[in-house]
Write the structure tokens for this entry.
Amino acid sequence: MFEPIRATFFPYELAPGIRAIPVTDAAAFWAQAVPLLEAIFPPFSQLGAYTLPAEREPRLNALGQAFAQSHHERFLFQTTTGEAIGFSYGDLRDRETFFMTSSGVLPAYQRQGLYSRFLRRFLSYLHLVGYERVVSNHQPNNRAVIIAKLKAGFNVTAVNLDERWGAQVELTYLFAEDRRRGFARAFSLDERPAGRSH
Ligand SMILES: CC(C)(COP(=O)(O)OP(=O)(O)OC[C@H]1O[C@@H](n2cnc3c(N)ncnc32)[C@H](O)[C@@H]1OP(=O)(O)O)[C@@H](O)C(=O)NCCC(=O)NCCS
């Protein structure tokens, strides 16, 4: 879905020798993303988060297939030698909202601007696809991603409590000025310009 538009934005150079590459095939993406997730995040079991018992997995097959038909985006950040050093993925949540599910960069490559450069490019792409808003959830002490996203123009829009992930801060990026004004008006906030990244 959206290949012609995506092709005008990606692959994209994040730094000399490192590119963000779209991977449309889900199995190919996960083959490289899972080792990255394991290297970047602590195991969920250590966090005490809920995990679905294996015997109930088959019940979700039909819904999984329905979800697979939706709009998904999957990226690997790759060196010129083909080594994956970072990833980002997410999907359509409603007809105007893209949800950035997870992103990560191996520790040796963090703090070099890779994620923020990817994010700016990705937001511009999502805007052209037609999205009005981009949402993500983060553990409240995940300062790295929260600060990077605030700098990109996201605002805090909620705190969510969920048996799977625990407490999470919800961040939202709004593309249109009228939505940004609407957000400020709805909560009687001073209008404080948020950065634009698209
Ligand atoms: C979040 C993450 C993807 C950011 O990637 P990154 O490529 O290192 O980020 P950037 O270099 O683009 O950082 C952009 C800005 O974010 C802020 N930032 C990044 N890491 C930070 C940290 N550890 N502490 C405080 N601020 C941080 C800084 O303001 C930084 O700009 P600066 O370096 O000019 O000061 C990376 O830290 C990561 O992989 N973390 C572990 C996985 C994770 O938590 N993912 C998010 C879950 S959805």
Notes: The chain has a mean pLDDT of 95. The domain at 3-46+62-186 is CATH 3.40.630.30 (Aminopeptidase). The first strand starts at residue 12 and ends at 15.
